[in-house]
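Quick one - first record:
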Amino acid sequence: MLFVIEKKIKSINFIKGVTIVELMISMVLGLLLINSVMTLYLNQRSSYYLSDQAIYVNNDARFISDLIGRDIRAVGDFGCTSAEKLMNVLNNTIFDPGDLRVISAFQRVSDIPNTIPGREVLTALNPVSGTPILMFKGSYGWQTYLDSGMATNTSPIKVKDNELKNFSKGDVVAISNCKQSSIFEVTNVNLNGLSHDAGVFPTAANGNSTGMIHIEPYAKGADIVRLDIIFYVIGNPSDGRPKGLYRISGTQNYAQLITDKLDNWNVKFKLDLNQDMVIDNNLIDINAMSATDWRNISSVYIEAVLRSSKILPNVKNSQRMKYYFNGEEETANDNHFYSSVSFETRLRNFK
């Protein structure tokens, strides 16, 4: 009996545990493994956020390019007639035939004439100081055709009944064929068509000076389009709306947020001074444009900086994004994703 107990005690003495040194080594190795896994996870997470924000920013850049490019090409688009054969009966000179093919740009709201519709909406957006304000005049509304010929040059403009809803009292409209074109304000919309009576009204165009829109009445098939004055501005409203690029309809007094990712931009112009379809001046800044240069614009060059909506995680100050703007390398002042893009659009209707 004593032999059995002694044997069990000796067997127990041979069972050894983990020493403190071995335990510490195991813990260090475990911590190193966990650190490697966490580092890999954080790097992958940062790469995911970077790629994710880059996709959003690049998508917005393409959308801006397409939208502004479309509006630039619509400047002065009134069918197959020229500005010299255009009759404007508006009381307001905002759509003066001599200015219809002009793109304008301003450094501040105070530079914009008070007679231009949409100025109050523009002011409420609180444009970011140092960023240009673009203004276009042209066909930016519903387009259709004359459904039946005019009996006289004062007859209502007849469109299809299901298209009447696309026009409102106070709209500025152009009608054109290959011989002549006219600009007038719609004074009434009913089943007879679009009226254009003479009178002074509290609208963007202040009504019509005469109800006779041209010397000859228009025949069926004439092109009809709604006109507008369009602004593009980087606004920072104080009413809770986000900072970003806004598109303003002057005649409708309405501002629409296009993207909250446009942080800064610059606009330059190329000119065709002698109307020979050859560019004479390359990339003229807004401040260097003369009064006559605005009538000779052949294309618009825009350089923009876009900024992601979300912050990139785990970015040190020394790792902040770098980008090029106005020919110089810039470093971001926060931990957002930044990207600079540029695009050029040629006017479709410059002389």
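second record:
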Amino acid sequence: MDDTINAIIVDDHKAAQDRLTRILQESFPRVKVIGATSDVKSGIRLVENNWNKLDLLFLDIELPPHTGFQLIEQVRASKRNFPFEVVFVSAYGRYLPDVVRLEERLQKRSIAFLKKPVEEFDLKRVITRFVIRGVDVPMGDRIDLLSETEGNLFFLTHLRGWAKLDPKDIIYCEGEGSTTKFFTTRTDLKVSELVMSKNIGHYKEKYSRLGFINVNRGLWVNPDYISKFNREDNVLILTSSPNQTACRVYLSRSGRQRLKEWMDQQGHNRS
């Protein structure tokens, strides 16, 4: 199975093209830049010539004497629906409302906005979102990676494909908007690769059944990895081994009460 993500860059600044290409090459080997250009006319030609294989279009907004919005409108005039993700990039945040309005008007969810200079962290968020929406798996293992779990296992998408995650490997999970990140003991997967396209509350019954503790509104911890509770700072220290860097998570008032209840059930000495 070819899991390459094909990308095109349209930006009138060569330095911006080169920076984005370099980040993609160094940090996202699955993404292949199949073309780059600097104006609307050649951008339309490049997109149409690669229509059937294009996955991500990184599109600058200011492309004098035109704009990236005009490129999209002209492409739509000849091809009503486009199957690729559009990532607008601009140094000016004032364009964000225009991007949102375009997204609503087209009723198309696969539109994103990145502020220049593009940073690797923000790029990960956009590419992960694309993978979550468009990921494919072998026919024998085809599942709904966006929402389904099987038994106590979690199925998560990541930049190289997908993975099964056993709850015993989860140190904690943290909500981030409409997604959930999983921090684990798995050395073969990075944090950026462990994302589920469901908010933290979607599987709260499952987290509870597994014995996880809801320590604040957006965070559940696996008590097997609790090493210390600092009352003065209201901080819980989590670690999977003596040699691992400890994770520090903050407790809400209700989270502290739930931790106390768990400690009571375990017969822990709280003195």
